[in-house]
Write a structure and sequence with these properties.
The protein is mainly beta and 691 residues long. It folds into 2 domains: 56-99 and 111-121 and 197-202 and 220-578, Quinoprotein alcohol dehydrogenase-like superfamily (Methanol Dehydrogenase, Chain A); 605-687, Cytochrome c-like domain (Cytochrome Bc1 Complex, Chain D, domain 2). Helices cover 10% and strands 30% of the residues. It contains 10 helices and 41 strands. The protein is globular and about 70 Å long.
Length: 691
């Protein structure tokens, strides 16, 4: 399939204000998706108008052409090669026969939804060096559509509006401070003529907030912070003043964290916006808030008015979060009969391993139960507060805590079938060795997790073998209806349909349809690249299609190549329909074994050990623990002698910055580079079987 022509990377970094390009953008021919149509999206079975299909974000389609009876006839209708091996996590939108999707580096595409013809591509030209301040791959999870415009956030913190008709720029706004370690990977949402967007960056030491921009002009309407700033500067609201009472020390020096990097949901009936708030900066409370406290509004669901961002209520899933148990995971609205009474609820299965049902009008805790094996808590109080295992906070030594920071459930979208009454989502059971780095000092140039990744001392508790499942959960009874064990710990988001189907992809490239009532496998398709993104379904001229992005990436691939056990290959948009039989190119051949290096750097064992510590500080987030790459960035153990000869120019001089390799001359010097080189060469020799 055709690929977009490369676009030179250039962007005016000093751009802060809104850019209006009214003269070159005509939105009139595009479909009119207004507030009324978004509110009524559930009755529009042909299109997929917003990130979760409707404002309730249930990801359930009423289409039935592809059903449990016919799904066996499903075949590949068309595909598009996205031209990348980086992670692809986006949920496509479909409006009147046009499919809109985002790829790596925040690039936006539009296709004929029936034929796969590429209609346009918009590259926001993200500076590739900004990838240094992105913890979890250069991904983007989706767009918003409103009144003829398509909106997306960019990795470097901009909110971009383009015409749906041709992908021409209408306006862009810099939503984050230039030069600070913020990023945007989540999808924007539309709420009453406003575009809502959050950002990431808590691991780098920033302060979280969500902004609302006028959809027509890009002007800032309101901004709500999720954690308090420096009291000496005054508080932006009474909510921030109240939150500050739950912190201690000088937390603001390291930003505080609490970034809203994914879940934002709008309820037009109540005029409320629900924000999923992330972890603290650093992870460990004794460092960011030495006197303890709940540290509001970390790891919380925060409800604010859509009109002005005013605080309404909050519910905290993990008070005083110590383990990266974000509440940024998918939020879903529903009406459930609980104790004989219909309740308007919000549901969430966050990282901490408990499934929550909350009254979305008041924030009242209604119910919650563990959906995975965990050891950090033994249950919840009647008010929904976790009953902690005290050993989980005793982190002076090495303590295995479950779930690990990836969470029992992460960003991967879940779906809800009102007919079965079940929520479908991937579950990940694992532990993590938490060790506090007592010598940690805040440095905005590097990850500020404050964990000691080089720890080799004694540990408390047992390491858990990672396991993964697809789970069907009854939110009324707070019980598991069925579970399917997966061959790999991590799996993709889900789609539910009225055809009694649940669709989900896996890291090994298998794309499956399960019977929604019992989890029986009814159909599968094998792709060479892992699938983490959530599928969608839509209809064009009476034909139902199922679409999903295939592109295995994220922190599980970057940090720890062996954790996810998935398959890295060409990223593609895959689209299926009944009785189709399109074929894919032959898979790429496997890489040869690592060869012993021919290039040497004179270094002692002590120097090589120091090089390993420098590698952990500056390189591990992309190139992996032990210099073992997951495959989406170069494996440094395979570095040629010719590349080693230019190693310093690459690391310090930015010789490969246009390709996504940032420069580190503000953090490292020539001697540091030499020691990192020596460590990488030692790892290459060990991997090749040397000694």
């Amino acid at each position: 399939m055709r690929r977009p022509r490369p676009v030179p990377v250039s962007w005016l970094v000093g751009l802060i204000t809104v850019v209006l390009l009214a003269g070159c953008a005509d939105t009139s021919p595009a479909p009119d998706v207004d507030d009324a149509r978004l509110i009524a999206a559930d009755s529009d079975d042909e299109n997929w108008l917003t990130y979760g299909r409707t404002y309730k974000e249930q990801r359930h389609s009423p289409l039935t052409e592809v059903s449990e009876e016919t799904v066996g006839r499903l075949g590949l209708a068309w595909y598009y090669d996205m031209g990348t091996k980086r992670g692809l996590e986006g949920t496509p939108l479909v409006v009147e026969g046009v499919l809109y999707v985002t790829g790596a580096w925040s690039v936006m595409h539009a296709f004929d939804a029936a034929t796969g013809e590429r209609l346009w591509t918009h590259d926001p030209q993200v500076p590739r060096g900004h990838s240094r301040f992105v913890c979890c791959d250069v991904v983007n999870r989706g767009q918003a559509f409103y009144r003829g415009q398509v909106y997306a956030g960019t990795l470097d913190g901009r909110l971009v509006s383009v015409t749906a008709e041709g992908g021409d720029l209408v306006w862009e706004s810099q939503t984050t401070p230039v030069g600070e370690a913020y990023s945007i990977t989540g999808a924007p949402r539309i709420a009453g003529g406003k575009v809502l967007i959050g950002s990431g960056g808590a691991e780098y030491g920033v302060r979280g907030y969500v902004s609302a921009y006028d959809a027509a002009t890009g002007e800032l309407s309101w901004r709500v912070y999720t954690v308090p700033g420096n009291p000496a500067d005054g508080f932006e609201s009474d909510a921030m003043a109240a939150a500050a009472e739950t912190w201690s020390g000088e937390w603001w020096e390291a930003g505080g964290g609490g970034t809203a990097w994914d879940a934002i949901v709008y309820d037009p009936e109540l005029d409320l916006v629900y924000i999923g708030v992330g972890n603290g900066s650093p992870w460990y409370r004794q460092l960011r808030s030495p006197g303890g406290g709940d540290n509001l509004y970390l790891s919380s669901i925060l409800a604010v008015r859509a009109s002005d961002g005013e605080y309404v209520w909050h519910f905290q899933t993990t008070p005083g979060d110590n383990w990266d148990y974000t509440a940024t995971q998918p939020l879903m609205l529903a009406e459930l009969e609980i104790d004989g009474r219909e309740r308007r609820v919000i549901m969430q299965a966050p990282k901490n391993g408990f499934f929550y049902v909350i009254d979305r009008e008041t924030g009242e805790f209604l119910s919650g139960e563990a959906f995975a094996d965990i050891n950090w808590a033994t249950g919840l109080t009647p008010e929904g507060r976790p009953i902690e295992n005290p050993d989980a906070r005793a982190l002076e030594g090495g303590v295995h805590v479950a779930p690990g920071p990836t969470g029992a459930h992460n960003w991967h979208p879940m779906s809800f079938n009102p007919e079965t009454g079940l929520v479908y989502f991937p579950v990940y059971e694992h532990s993590w060795l938490h060790v506090v780095d007592d010598e940690w000092e805040y440095d905005r140039r590097v990850l500020n997790i404050a964990g000691d990744f080089a720890y080799t001392g004694p540990t408390t508790g047992e390491a858990w073998t990672p396991r993964g499942h697809l789970v069907a959960w009854d939110p009324v009874t707070q019980s598991e209806a069925w579970r399917v064990e997966q061959p790999h710990p991590l799996s993709g988001g889900t789609l539910s349909t009225a055809g009694n189907l649940v669709f989900q992809g896996r890291p090994d490239g298998v794309f499956r349809a399960y019977r929604a009532t019992d989890g029986e496998v009814l159909w599968e398709f094998q792709h060479e690249t892992g699938i983490l993104a959530a599928p969608i379904t839509y209809s064009v001229d009476g034909t139902q299609y199922v679409a999903v992005l295939s592109g295995y990436g994220g922190p599980e691939v970057l940090f720890n190549a062996g954790l996810g056990g998935g398959s890295v290959g060409p990223g593609r948009l895959l689209v299926f329909a009944l009785d189709e039989d399109a074929s894919l190119p032959e898979p790429l051949p496997p890489l040869p074994p690592i060869a012993a290096p021919t290039f040497e750097v004179a270094a002692t064992d002590a120097e090589i050990e120091q090089g390993g510590l420098l590698y952990l500080d500056s390189c591990v987030a992309c190139h992996g623990f032990g210099a073992v790459s997951g495959g989406i960035v170069p494996d440094l153990r395979r570095t040629t002698a010719a590349t080693h000869a230019t190693f310093e120019q690459i690391v310090l001089g930015g010789a490969r910055e246009p390709l996504g390799m940032p420069r580190f001359d503000d953090l490292l010097d020539s001697e540091d580079v030499r020691l990192i080189q020596a460590y990488v060469l030692r790892r290459a020799l060990e991997s090749a079987g040397g000694n």
